[in-house]
Amino acid sequence: MTEKKKTRVIAFANQKGGVSKTSSALNVCYAFTELGKNVLLIDMDSQASASLNLGIDVDEEETGTIDALLQPMITNQVKYRSWAEIQSCIQTPTFTDRQRDPENKMQWITLDTPFGVNGRYDIIPSSILLAVVELQMGLASGSAGRYVPIYLERIIDVIKKFGDYDYIVLDCPPSLSGLFLNSVYAAIDGVIAVSSLDIMSLRGIDNLIESVESVSKIRPEHRGILGIMFGLFSERRKVDKDLNYYAKKYLPIPVFDSKIPESADAKKANSSMLLLSQLNKKCNAAYIDLANEIDFAISNPDEPVGSQKYLEPDEESDDE
Q1: Which residue has the higher pLDDT, 147 or 220?
Q2: Quick check: 319 pLDDT over 80?
Q3: Most confidently modeled of 69-73, 146-150, 205-209, 304-308?
Q4: Among 36, 94, 131, 254, which residue carries the largest CB count within 10 Å?
């Protein structure tokens, strides 16, 4: 009998918006498929940016969404969702590609090609109704004293049991909310803090660290924050290098070695319904490096990650 693969659950988070959190989640998922892994992205943001970037029509009536799965649980209509109900909300996005007709080299064929490369890339999309679900979640927790973070965890437990995924990746909302706590609690294998290289984004990391630590105390097996990643990094900008040094020296979490380079293709990706990794080889290579770093950190919990590898002996003793 074939052994069931272990499904890892991670989250991309920052309480500040506009730091490339969703873009990072989308492209790291793509990088995982290039490494041969099957990935399920769950969009936990009511803005539905991840869903829309993958070309999912969240306004289509037949489109199953994460809010539709959560809402009956929060309003106490059901305690669990079946695998069939969850499967109905899982979508495999595609992008439009063109190739030569093998029978007539003068003609082009338009294809809808799955995003996944060597692995599968699926998503449970979100919609604006997730904001309503968030309000209901707060009311349910306040009036009944119910422990909020169990809802998403129950859904993920079913996916782990019946699905065939190496990674479940959660795109957290940019706020301290019930949805955020649900996501962090469920991301038992670790949280990736995402920040742009500006001081305001880095200041928000302290609140993120505190929030994740509070969840980790409730769930001791939780890996906490695996590390912080930076997007739109430029080696030519002194301020980028200065802030990267500041983060390595003063933040109490590792800084991943992989930096996502700044690219004009980022805006082109949004407008063309493609991922940055599909348009820019340099960025694609950086996301693959980051995916490998994340995978190594999860598989080797006792090994140093990123900036931890370069700590001087006296700095290590200061943290103990």
Answers
A1: 220
A2: no
A3: 69-73
A4: 254
CB 47 within 8 A of CB 41: no
Listed residue (179, 229, 196, 190) closest to 212, CA to CA: 190
Is residue 117 within 8 Å of 284, Cβ to Cβ? no
User: What are phi and psi for residue 169, nearest 5 degrees?
Assistant: -115, 130
Is residue 245 pLDDT above 60, yes or no? yes
Local structure of 231: helix, strand or coil: strand
Residue found by looking up tokens 């080797």 in the block: 300
| Single-letter amino acid code for the residue at 251 | L
- The angle at the Cα of 292, spanning 218 to 209, to the nearest 5 degrees, equals 30
Give the count of beta carbons closer than 10 Å to the beta carbon of residue 158.
18
Supply the pTM of this predicted model: 0.89
pLDDT of amino acid 226: 96
**What phi and psi, each to the nearest 5 degrees, are found at residue 224?**
70, -150
Per the CB < 8 A criterion, the answer to whether 138 and 74 are in contact is no
pLDDT reading at 142 higher than 60: no
User: What span, in angstroms and rounded, lies between the C-alpha atoms of 270 and 22?
Assistant: 11
Residue 25, helix vs strand vs coil: helix
Nearest alpha carbon to residue 125 among 237, 7, 41, 204: 41
Report helix, strand or coil for 91: strand
Token pair in block for residue 259: 């930096």
**pLDDT given at position 143:** 45
